[in-house]
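Quick one from the shared queue. A colleague (R.T.) flagged DNA primase as missing a structural entry in our internal table.

Convert sequence to structure tokens.
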Amino acid sequence: MTIDVDPKPALRLTRDRVRDRLTFPARHFLERGFSRKILDSFDVGYSAKRDRIVVPLYDEEGIHCIGDTFRSYKPPCGTCRKHHDPGVPCKYGQQKWGIMRGFAKRAYLYNYAAALRADSPFVFLVEGPPDVWRLGEAGYVGVALLGSSMTDEQHRKQWPSTRRS
């Protein structure tokens, strides 16, 4: 299920509307040792419409969903390197991770709003949402790049000078 977020900034969904569209918790991540509490706090759920796990991406205030990233829970295929159930043709395979088409990930930091509000004297910079969740379970605050390289736009967020109380 696409969280029905149009890439135009005028259309934004509240957390309640996002949560109404997903099933919680995402069993795939429970099976990988994440707690129900952390998955719930980040609104990580299963979308029956898309048959994938959805991770909502919220604005810099942490109020409105402005996009999503998604993960296949299906096993990897040794032939096509995509993810699909055994016996399903490779042409129907899914990427392991994907992001909503048109989302400006180059300027986005996952969990940025929470990091701005945190009392922590430092914030970890990590690759993806699961890394942020693991940090949260350990009592630390992190933001994720949604990839392995930091862009100039992400760097300009200028921590901690822009942090708010």
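DSSP finds six helices and seven strands in the chain.
Residues 121 and 160 are 9 Å apart (CA to CA).
Added to the table.
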